[in-house]
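tokens incoming
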């Protein structure tokens, strides 16, 4: 099969005729503005910037939302299945067999499929998706420490027993060794670069080893899922020293405190910094965030270098994306449990590689992370599985269409909904019932608030237009359409199997 790339809306045959490899890099809690070339913030990301310069940047790609505070679980389920939020099973932890994964799709097409890094779904879907893997994390044991991350070797049976998890650390000679996890291993970020390798280094090393040793005639599909820049925001001193906190520029949406209860203000992510989030606290949090991103960027650079050194770069499609946004001081928040853009749902998405002809191209078409799966299939000539809801962006890349979607819709648990169309974005918050696990009782949280932003003029969402008379018609139109889209998409508790329904409280 011939390999094709796009240039000036025309198909151009590439020099090589064999199927191209695919490297899908997925980062954790990495907002759109967490890439310098995209958001022009203080963060340094030369290697991801190079992917953007040598590829196509999608400027309006979003996470649809989550019914879990651990938004990385549904975000991964959507990426891996190409299915929208309201058509996942439950909160996205389990991927049923009738939902074909991206790994399965490439496996069935004759690719050797390999997985490295974070997995947030069930192990049955993991092993059916990939032929091989290494240093898998996220399966039931977690120490909240990038330098003490429980890992598993690949288990083709999908057992991944807790007793088989191990840690990597340095011995007295500086050599990396493994050891079993014990009851004395306490949770918390107590490791450093002197005691053990960082998760980003471990995952990059394993990806590099796979690429370096790859000798098969068939192409490979690699899913490289980094845990960074998810907290704890640990990075080697070299990278922390790059970001003196007093030199960090705060974002336009910085606030010391969120102005109202958004329904999920008290959770682990928000406990990472004290209230109020003073300018000094916010700058330090941003400095730590940027440091771990720059360290991650260096590891991504090593992986790309290995492709070039092995001769694989010329025939590899590189896809880079983040799983969610992250507030880190925006709107007075720290986590990603919201439907504000940078705080929760706006993510980087880049398609790059030697055979991408439209280098440096920016595409503003609206898209979701679950559109990535069908887009990759379309670019590599694979049939898109029937279980996929997402839409390929290839018609936009080829300039046959300006948009594949005319709106986006977002949900966070039973407290928040958002609707984006044209220049505007509507966010509705409600006061709703919830269940408190600690007290084992039903509680009520949240506030009934309406926000309307012109996100084209106000991308950081700082000026609420909802109360202004001149926006009354826009507001009412957006509210009416949002209700209609909720029904079309299946956003009601009987459909999504969720205990509480936003619309019962709206």
């Amino acid at each position: 099969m011939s390999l094709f790339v796009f240039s000036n809306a025309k198909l151009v045959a590439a020099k090589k005729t064999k199927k191209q490899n695919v490297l899908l890099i997925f980062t954790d809690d990495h907002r759109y503005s967490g890439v310098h070339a995209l958001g022009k913030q203080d963060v340094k990301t030369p290697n991801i910037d190079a992917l953007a310069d040598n590829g196509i940047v999608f400027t309006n790609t979003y996470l649809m939302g989550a019914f879990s505070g651990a938004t990385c679980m549904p975000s991964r389920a959507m990426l891996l299945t190409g299915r929208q939020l309201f058509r996942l099973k439950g909160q996205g932890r389990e991927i049923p067999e009738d939902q074909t994964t991206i790994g399965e799709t490439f496996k069935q097409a004759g690719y050797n499929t390999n997985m490295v890094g974070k997995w947030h779904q069930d192990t049955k879907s993991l092993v059916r998706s990939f032929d091989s893997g290494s240093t898998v994390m996220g399966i039931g044991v977690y120490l909240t420490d990038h330098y003490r991350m429980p890992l598993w070797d690949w288990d083709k049976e999908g057992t991944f027993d807790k007793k088989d998890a191990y840690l990597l650390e340095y011995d007295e000679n500086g050599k990396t060794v493994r050891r079993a996890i014990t009851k004395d291993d306490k949770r918390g970020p107590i490791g450093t670069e002197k005691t053990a390798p960082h998760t980003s280094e471990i995952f990059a090393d394993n990806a590099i080893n796979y690429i370096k040793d790859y000798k098969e005639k068939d192409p490979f599909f690699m899913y490289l899922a980094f845990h960074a820049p998810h907290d704890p925001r640990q990075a080697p001193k070299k990278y922390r020293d790059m970001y003196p906190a007093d030199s960090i520029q705060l974002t336009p949406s910085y606030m010391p405190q969120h102005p109202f209860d958004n329904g999920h203000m008290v959770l682990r992510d928000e406990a990472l910094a004290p209230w109020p989030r003073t300018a000094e606290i916010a700058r330090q949090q941003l400095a730590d965030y940027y440091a771990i991103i720059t360290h991650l960027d260096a590891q991504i650079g090593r992986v790309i270098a290995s492709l070039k050194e092995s001769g694989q770069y010329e025939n590899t499609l590189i896809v880079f994306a983040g799983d969610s946004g992250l507030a880190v001081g925006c709107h007075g928040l720290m986590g990603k449990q919201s439907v504000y853009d940078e705080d929760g749902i706006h993510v980087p998405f880049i398609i790059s590689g030697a055979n991408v002809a439209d280098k440096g191209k920016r595409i503003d078409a609206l898209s979701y992370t679950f559109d990535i799966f069908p887009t990759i299939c379309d670019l590599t000539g694979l049939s898109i599985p029937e279980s996929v809801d997402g839409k390929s962006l290839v018609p936009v890349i080829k300039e046959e269409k300006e948009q594949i979607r005319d709106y986006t819709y977002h949900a966070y648990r039973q407290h928040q909904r958002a609707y984006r169309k044209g220049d505007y974005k509507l966010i509705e918050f409600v006061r709703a019932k919830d269940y408190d696990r600690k007290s084992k009782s039903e509680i009520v949280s949240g506030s009934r608030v309406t926000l309307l932003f012109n996100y084209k003029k106000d991308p950081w969402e700082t000026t609420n237009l909802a109360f202004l008379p001149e926006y009354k018609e826009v507001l009412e139109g957006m509210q009416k359409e949002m209700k209609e889209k909720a029904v079309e998409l299946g956003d009601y508790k009987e459909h999504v199997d969720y205990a509480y329904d936003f619309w019962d409280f709206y």
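note: The mean pLDDT is 94.
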